[in-house]
Automatic annotation (TrEMBL):
Keyword set, alphabetical order: Hydrolase, Metal-binding
An MF annotation (GO) of this entry: agmatinase activity
GO BP term, example: putrescine biosynthetic process from arginine, via agmatine
InterPro entries (alphabetical): Agmatinase-rel, Ureohydrolase, Ureohydrolase_dom_sf, Ureohydrolase_Mn_BS
Pfam families assigned to the protein according to its UniProt record, in alphabetical order: Arginase
Identification of the protein by name: Agmatinase
Recorded family membership: Belongs to the arginase family. Agmatinase subfamily.
Stored SUPFAM superfamilies: Arginase/deacetylase
Protein's UniProt keywords contain Ribonucleoprotein: no
Amino acid sequence: MLGIIRYRLLPNTLCLFRRFTSSRSHTQLPGEDSNLRGDGAIRRTAPYGSTIEQTYAGVLSFLRRNYTRNLNGVDVAVTGIPLDLATTYRPGTRFGPRGIREASVQLSELKSYPGGIDLFEDLSVVDYGDCWFDMSQPKTIPAAIEEHAQKIIRRNAFLLSLGGDHYVTYPLLKAHAAVHGKPLSLIQFDAHCDTWPDRHSDSLNHGSMFYYAINEGLIDPETSIQVGIRTHNDNFMGVKIIEADWIHRHKTQNVVDEIKHRVGNNPTYLTFDIDCLDPAFAPGTGTPVCGGLSTAQAIAILRRLGSINYVGMDIVEVSPVYDHANITSLAAATLAYEFLLLLRHKKVVDKCFPFGHH
């Protein structure tokens, strides 16, 4: 009897031994050829490549990218804009950049799905850290954000910003328009149009940024589009609206065709308010509205927008204090990762994207 038990246990014991001692699998994982293990955000010497990380530990940066302000040879700089002073309902988006970074750890562990791409072999990405401003001096904040963004853009790095409430897009648009020229086209994923009138352009209001931006010529409403809208406004100021209900009744490609036709090849800024997603998929946000897109719908649309002539991107309105199990932060991190895949495709496949280089 003992001999039978030993015979049956031995193969299982060997399998367990191989499972916990093998350092390589048949399919190579990102970072396996690196000598570094852990804390790649501060130990990696170059903006390319990956490192093996413990997803549950280590220094947090977006997708474990180098935490640095050295932009030499950098394609994309990721920065946080931790503002929530412009919210009209629930606060907490000052914690958005941190929440998105925390939720991004798994996304850097494996190659991309479904393409199986090791993103950072081709695209040099760094985490530039957060924009600093004095919360006790709110009138100085817009200029601080604009200056912070321009400093990055003028170094010929493409800027991906993590909000923060949606007001941050206004000074970000100013910074991009100053470098790339104006007006820009706008692709806005949102539950709200954010073009409600406000006579005081220096007020912090996350519902009026695009009212300011259109009136100041930062964006061209005739070549701009808002996707997922499900709140009323008496005047959408000439921006094309694709309502969430329309999206639910049509195919993904129909939505993509509308977006591409509207913006054409114009220099375009992409902004994604996480409340574009239904609260079932993004509960952690300041002004949730039922009836929105699913995370899967948003990803499917984004993956087909590779031909757009992007000049900048942001994802905003993540409020982790109202989140559950990091659902919203994970959605935002995943969407931002999809943004980077679009940019990588432009660099490697299209070979026609300058990443801000002039």
